[in-house]
Amino acid sequence: MKTKMIGLTGGIGSGKTTIARHFISWGVPVYFADDEAKKILYLPEAVEEIRDAFGEAAFTDGIPDRQKIAGIVFSDPEKLNILNRIIHPKVKQHFLDWAASHSDKPCVIKEAAILFETGSYKDLDAIILVTAPKETRISRVMQRDNVTREKVMERMDNQWDDERKLALSDHIIENIDPEKARENAFLVYKIITNVPN
Ligand code: ATP
Q: Which end of the chain, N or C, is less surrounded by CB atoms within 10 Å?
């Protein structure tokens, strides 16, 4: 049977990484797309394209500098598009290669903060959305990253709101009470791995 490719997403601070860890503990391989994208930035083919697109201003000591790149694309949507066009196809291919290496499994999960925003949800068989109230998410991230409310809001501004994501999602896990969220995640686990109830 074909390995199903499942997306796992949710707004900043919703707890998608926390939920992803539950799936790992039940034997589902999880690909953390945001972490992988950070590594892909340093691969030779990406380095060359970044130099062509942004020049030396994006580098420190010949190495792409994530902070400098973030500064360049932050207030310039066209430059952000260019960066996305460099990185996203490479992450997509890397994920497909990774998924192929797990072809013995009923499903694999791709965890990403922005699955809908990039359109990559279209390549997946189903989407799990993790939700929590906005205020809860803000205070979780303020505490986790030791950042101001404004910083969290800035990051939220680049993401779709939950209403828009709900319409395109197949499974919703509300993550407020941790134990309830784990139980709901387990129900989703049974569905995506075809375990009878
Ligand atoms: P980001 O988009 O920033 O990567 P995320 O959606 O992956 O965030 P997590 O990192 O899993 O979210 O969770 C954010 C913070 O909230 C973490 O410190 C985590 O330990 C905490 N957290 C997650 N779920 C709960 C919960 N149900 N109750 C309380 N705290 C939680």
A: C
